[in-house]
Amino acid sequence: MKVIIIGAGIGGTSAGIALARLGHDVVIYDQMRENKPVGAALSLWSNGVKVLNWLGLADEVTRLGGDMADMVYLDGFSGETLCDFSLAPVTAVSGQKPYPVARADLQAALMDRFGLDRIRLNMRMVAIADDGEQVTVTFADGSTDTADLLIGADGARSLTRAYVQPDGAPEIVREYSGYTNFNGLVTVDPAIGRPTAWTTYVADGKRAAVMPVADDRFYFWFDVPQPAGLAYDRADGAAPLRDAFAGWAPGVQALLDGIDPATSLNRVEIWDITPFETWTKGGVAILGDAAHNTAPDIGQGACSALEDAFALGIAFATNTVSVVDTLKRYEKIRVERAGDLVLRARRRGYETHAFDPEATSAWYESLRGADGAAIIRGIVGNIDGSPVELGAGLLTT
């Protein structure tokens, strides 16, 4: 069976690997001119790592992942430690250590494993047609390709998402989450945080955080609540961050000093999409951000895309009635859980970014002297119910 995948991101390439391993003829198209991933890094919790293990990339993930053993929260202004605890319980109940990874490194590993010769770049899809037997894709250069099915992993502004919606359905629109995220990579510096810890400074609804990734680097990010559409000139570099985090703790100032805007600094307004139920139409289905564009507040965006790839692979390995039937079964596996994660992230962002100041103050107070048990429950709760667990759930002691 021939499969066309639109989008060579984390979800598209992982789905491509899964379907190619089943013997299908898979080709991936992407509109990017060259492999330049958006965003500096990803937090891969055990559900995402397990999918990558299943795809045969266990060694690569271990090599690329940072040794994130602990979680630390600090007061943004004073630098006082609010709580400091081990993440070992997450590994114990899930059976897999989490790994933050640089996005470009993981993207390269996935593309290499799929096969660079089967990825066509600089190809922008402009139309989809399904005659009930095959799906034809038209590209901006006028060329076409035809396959037995099409997987749209074409991101938050997905053309495929619009195609699969029922006639007369309300338009699906992205919604602003209320804050801007700045992220990148810096060299590990103990003045910022321990090399083996996820360290987060919090105050005034803002966050400054680092996670360890391979090659002695921290993945950093800053969250700044602000209106959408504010002007930003890349020539300003980290100046908006210095303004937003003026007077913050020495560790935050050390992080700001370590940023090289010319090398690694991204600015991203955070948007999401309210969950919806229709992911398929005939021989066409959506996956990843096209299906469940989410804010990063619970760190499950990439993991959810990887779960899509797992569910799609399992569906095609075990169902043989028809392509349409199999895609509907994939949809049924994923819609409810993926939508729930979007809403969890939205609620989390509302709490942490002072959109309800009393709730945020209460959260800060709950961190003070915490043993981490409640936070661990939240992390594990996001993992529990993943299709990669095959219904077995998580082991508890």
Would you kindly provide a brief summary of this structure?
With 397 residues, the protein is an alpha/beta fold. It is 36% helix and 25% strand. The protein is built from 13 helices and 18 strands.
Characterise this structure:
- The chain is α/β, with parallel strands linked by helices and 397 residues long.
- It has one domain: FAD/NAD(P)-binding domain.
- The protein has 13 helices and 18 strands.
- It has helices at 10-21, 46-54, 58-64, 88-94, 103-114, 159-164, 239-244, 250-258, 289-292, 301-318, 323-352, 357-367, 373-383; strands at residues 2-6, 25-29, 41-44, 70-75, 81-86, 99-102, 119-120, 125-130, 135-139, 144-147, 149-152, 175-187, 197-203, 206-213, 217-225, 266-272, 280-281, 284-286.
- Strands 5-4-13-14-15-12-16 form a seven-stranded mixed β-sheet. The chain has a six-stranded mixed β-sheet with strand order 7-2-1-11-18-17. It has a three-stranded antiparallel β-sheet with strand order 8-9-10.
- β1 (2-6), α1 and β2 (25-29) form a beta-alpha-beta unit.
- The mean pLDDT is 96.
